[in-house]
Structure formats: structure tokens, C-alpha cells
Amino acid sequence: MPLITYRQAVNDALAEELTRDENVIILGEEVAEYDGAYKVTEGLLSKFGSKRVIDTPISEAAFIGLGIGASFLGIRPVMELMFWSFCYVAYDQVVNNAANVRYMSGGLMNCPIVIRGPANGGTSVGATHSHTPEGQLANFPGLKVVCPATAYDAKGLMKSAIRDPDPVYVMENTLLYGEEWEVPEEEYVIPLGLADIKRSGTDVTIVAHGRAALTAVKAAEILSTEHDIEAEVVDLRSIRPLDEETVLESVRKTNRAVIVEENKPFCGVGAQLAYTIQAKAFDHLDAPVKRVSALDAPQIYSMPLEKQQIPDAQRVLKAVLEVC
Amino acid sequence: MVESSSLSPSIHRHEYNVSKKSNAPPEFLKTVVDQADTESGQDPVNAGLTAENKINLFRTMIRIRRFEERTLRIYQQGKIGGFLHLYIGQEAIATGTTSLMGSDDHVITAYRDHGHALAVGMSMNECMAELQGKHTGCSKGKGGSMHYFAPDKNYWGGHGIVGGQTPLGAGIAFALKYRGKKGCCMAFMGDGAVNQGVFLETLNLASLWDLPIIFIIENNGYSMGTSLNRSSKGLPLAKRANGFDMKWETVNGHSVYDVRAKTASAIRHAHEENRPTLLEMSTYRYRGHSMSDNEKYRDKDEVERYKQTSDPINLFRDRLIREGVFDEATAKDIDKAAREEAETAVRFADESPFPPSGDIFSDVYYESDHPEERASKGRLFFND
To answer: Which terminal residue of chain B, N or C, has fewer Cβ atoms less than 10 Å from its own Cβ?
Structure first.
């Protein structure tokens, strides 16, 4: 199986879906002539032309609203936010119009859009550019949110997102764009809402999503070699819909749960999961559920401190050792 | 169409005198509307109207008025929750503009949406039932007054956030152009929407990308309780289009003929050149912004003056009588039928059931409503 980058995997998914369905279009700042601020859409303009791959002005509220309106008539816009941190200038479109229009019309209308882009800290770009809004967006019924951690997941989930009849928000990660994974050449899709066990284990369940799932795997390897603890890493991949069953099944097996995320803790994804685990696997728990989140402050600029702010393998390790 | 920054001759003094102390003389207002009617009556789009066409325009306007007057009564009886933004006084705009729609022309509007809904052919029954939150409502009781939708009639709502519908309208126009359709989208808003950032962003995109859209500002003089003079600088509002190299025009929104003539021109511009237009239509709402409005921001005299001198329905009725299209008795019959239709709609709404409680969870996701087509896995709802 060839090794390709996360960036290439997303690019391939977009190209394949542009080829498959002429209703699919790409909209965003610098996505066409500039080849994408992070080069995710590189080459798509020359391959598919300016009718399908469209540069927008820096005008998120208008172009995302435009994509939503176009989707009412069956266009399937895939809109790039250069950073998910910019969704707030378009928030009325992102959480009011996209999430509610099907409901408020009694099912007469649909909004088959994708909004995608990076949502991560860890790049020393300061608080305004380091938001991870998957938890808050998943709070809106009507929206779907996915956070792929690998190139394989990114491609399969992106293709499903584009074919999905509901609005799907895909959170990528700039720190992962250049990383390589094995990705099959033949076509595949990954259903939204299906978690992936990134590492099997018997002693503790570590639940994570996005880059935190990779951090969890690193911690699990150290736990195995240095502490004789076999951790099972459940990568959610999708926040909403949520594969609750895979999480619960693992916890019922290991009797311990640690939740890792690069989100801030308050009302984060981990808060929802901790609730679910205590409600549905209470009798199986041998220890309290632990959370490891980004440290609860605006994202700091200073590079060494930001590394401390985002969960690393050592913090995960420490949390696991507290419950094992 | 106006392309320079000079004021169009159809901008009238009274349109910018709407403030706490308006002093436009009553006869002046009437003369202005009459003049607009007479001038625009010559436009081919109006000159070609049959008597039946004209009577239908009158009927649509009076149906909107009688429907809304009836909603006011059921609101006072406590049958309508939340807000009720009435369109009374503005009927010529929704009626005139939508009367020009072809099969690929579309409409989107804000929360003062009852008039547009009835004008595109939605029934009083489904609209009245929606207000009462009934299962038979146009949105199955899930949208309410501000959120009417009828995609089968090219009517895309009914949107509650000021200005938030304007990029959606641009998206509809984008889709039409993408598909090679000769159509356009008419995106309505109030004068309060013009200071929302998203509206200005959308003007830019529409002009930049040559979208077939007509932005229609229904300028009733007040953004909620704040008069135009206290909320916007740079009049006429439509002049803002200049900044985006977009054509603009001011329209007498009390004159259904003027509304039709200027809109028809904008539709041609959209259909033939894929270019947007910004129309500002002067109008006046007789009722408050919504229901809990003590209207301290304007004098009762001002409202009365508009009612007496420039009511779009009365003026059009008088004109049609003068034109010999119908007589007063026929006008009264049409009015009576509209009142009866509204009465019937109230009975329909009263007798309709509320949605079953399971409906809280339908229409959230297409996938959860169509489990047989569902591709995703996992939980979509989190109630336990």
C-alpha cells in the first residue's frame, strides 16, 4: 500500500468526488490559483477549472452563506476555512442557517454542504488561530462533525462527508498535513460515526479524536514497554454521529477510561463522553473516568509553553497511571 | 437604472422624512404615488396587463391584508407564540415583485414573510396553521411566523436573523447560473438589514461573480423602533450598490405598477446579463415591529397620514375603478371573499392537531428521517 500524506489524501478525496459528481464544487480563500493556503487543494483548479474550483474573497459569512443557499438547489459545495478559527465570523451561517433550515422547514429543505479546514493548536499562531470548535459545533443538532487523525481516515471520511445529505464539518490538522500513512489505491469510504480501535489492549481504554488519538497511541506504547499496562486506544474519528457502542464495549472490557482531547475541558467532547461512560458502564468501572485536555486558557503563543498546553504522551501516561 | 451617485427622481421627500416628527403634507404623499402609478403604468410590463391580471394583483394584496388582520386577532387570543411581524401597509411590494416570477425565478426573505408567502401561492390555511404551531402548517409547526418555506413554489423562507438570508439568496442565484438556467433570485430585506456586515459582503460577491440576484430593500422607515435617520447614514440606501459597481434604483413601494416596472427591469438585467441589482422600495408598516411594540418612536398622526394618503391597496383599488377594470361593488366582493378565506383558515388552524411529540426528533437530519438510506453509523441524538 502506498504511503501518502494527510494533505494528499484529502486532495485525492476532493478530486475523486469532483470527478464523480458534477454538483460538487470547491469554494474558499486561496483554494484555486494559490493552490490552497496549506496546499490541500493543489492542482484542482488546473484539473477541474474555475467553474468548479473557486477562489473567494476574505468574506466567510458571505461565501459560506452562499454555499448553503446553493445547496438548497442540489449543489454540493465543499468550503474551505483557512482555519476553523475563522468560522466565528460566519457563525450565523454555520450554526443557524446550516443546522436549522431542514428542521424549520419541516423537512422540505436540505443542506448537503461540507465545511473543511484545519482546527488545531500547536503551531504557535496565537489564540485567535488555534481554536478547536468540534465540541461546540457538535452541540448543534442538525450538524455532523468529524476529526480524522490519519491520511487513511481523512480520505475515507472526506468522501463520505461530501456524499452525506446533511451538513458535515470536517476538522483537519496542520500538524498532520505532512505526515504519511498507508492509503490503498482502490476507492473506499469510511462511514461517519464509526470509531476505530487504533491499538488493542485490555487494561485501560483511552478515548481520543484527531491528533490526540496519535498522542494516545504513543502513550500506550510507553505504558506497554515501561509499565506493563496494555491500553486500548479508541479513536472516535467522528464526534457527531458518535460511536458510543465501541467506546462502551471497550470500557466494559478494560474497566477504566481516560479521555484525551486537544480541546479545552469545559463542556468539551470529553465531558460528554465521561457522562456517557458513567451512565452506561458504571458497574464496569474500577476507577473514576479521567480527562486530559488542553490546559484551560486561551492558546498561548510561546512555543515551549504551547507544547505544554496541548496534551502530550507524558500527560496521558500520568493520567493512566493514576487510574491503573 | 441609476448608475451614478445622483439621486433618482423617484426618491421623494417623504421617504426620508420618516422620523418622530414627519411633516410631509398628506396631499403630497398621494400625488407622489399617483405620479409613480401613472408613469410606471405606461411600462410595457404594466400596459400589457389584462383586466383579470390587474384584478388578481388587487386580490393578492387584499388577501395578504385580511389574512394578517385576522392573525392579529388570534395573536390577541393567545393562539400564536412568540413573534408576529405584520406586513400590513407593504403589500404592493411582495405582490408586484412575485407577480413577475417565471419558473426559474426564486424568492427568499426575512422574518416579515407572510406577504411573500401568500403572494407566491402558499395557502392561507397552511400559513395560519403554522402560526398556531399546528401539524398542518407549512413547516409542520416547526418554524412559526418567521420561518415559512415552500421550495415547490421557489420560496426559500422566511429567515429570522436580520440580513442572514442575503448570502443564501446569492447561493440560489449561484446555483441557477451554475446550472445554466435563465432565472434569478429576489432577496428581500428590511431597511434594518443594510447595516449588517453579511449583507455588504454579499453585495460584493454578487457583483464580483455576476450573480443573477435582485436585492430588494423594503424601506418602511424603521428598523424595529429606530427610525431610518437614526440608524443609517448615506441615503438613499440603494446608493450603497455604487460601491460595488452594481445597478440600483429607488421604487415607490406604495405603487404596485412602479414596483412591477422597476423589478421587471432588474429581472431582465439578471436574466440577460447575469448581473445583480439593488432596489430600494419605499413603504410603510402600519403595525408595530412585532406585537409587543408601544410605538413610542413615532406619532399616531404619521401612521394615520400614511393610511389615508398612500395605502397601496386603496390607491390601487381607486386606480382600477378609474381605469374601468372593475367597480366598487366588485372590489368589495373580492375583499369579502378574502375575509371569508381568512376566517376559514382560522377554523382550519383551530381544528388542526398539534404535531405529535415524536415530531421533535424528525427533520433534524435527512439521514435520521430516511433510515433505509442512512450511510453513517453511531448516535445522532443524545437524550440519555
So the answer is: C
Residue numbers of chain A with a pLDDT score lower than 70: none
pLDDT at B26: 62
Q: CB contacts < 8 Å between A and B, how many?
A: 187
Query: Is the Cα torsion angle A245, A250, A253, A257 positive or negative in sign?
Result: negative
- What structural domains does chain A harbor? 3-182 (3.40.50.970), 196-323 (3.40.50.920)
pLDDT in tens, B289-337: 888 888 889 988 889 999 999 999 999 999 999 999 999 999 999 999 9
Interface of A with B in 212-241 (CB under 8 A): 238, 240-241
**Residue A225 grid cell:** 514497554
Instruction: Quote the pLDDT of residue A159.
Output: 98
Q: In this complex, do A96 and B161 lie within 8 Å of one another by their Cβ atoms?
A: yes
ipTM confidence: 0.97
Nearest chain A residue to B369, by CA: A107
Chain centroid to CA A299: how far?
A: 19
CATH of segment(s) B17-351: 3.40.50.970
Q: What is residue B379's DSSP assignment? A: B
- The partner residues of B320 in beta bridges, in order of sequence, read none
In one-letter notation, the amino acid at residue A282 is F
B139 touches chain A (CB under 8 A): yes
CB A199 within 8 A of CB A231: yes
Q: What is the mean pLDDT of the segment spanning B341-369?
A: 98
User: What single-letter amino acid sits at A39?
Assistant: K
Task: Please check whether residue B156 is in contact with residue B108, taking contact to mean a CB–CB distance below 8 angstroms.
Answer: yes
- On chain B, the residues whose CB falls within 8 A of the CB of A279 are 384
Give the residue numbers of A annotated as catalytic, written as ranges: 60, 129
- Per-residue cell: B135: 401539524
Extents of the domains making up chain B: 17-351
Q: State yes or no: pLDDT of B101 exceeds 70.
A: yes
Query: Which DSSP letter does residue B123 get?
Result: -
d(CA B162, CA A61): 13
Determine the residue of chain A that is closest to B380 in CA distance.
A241
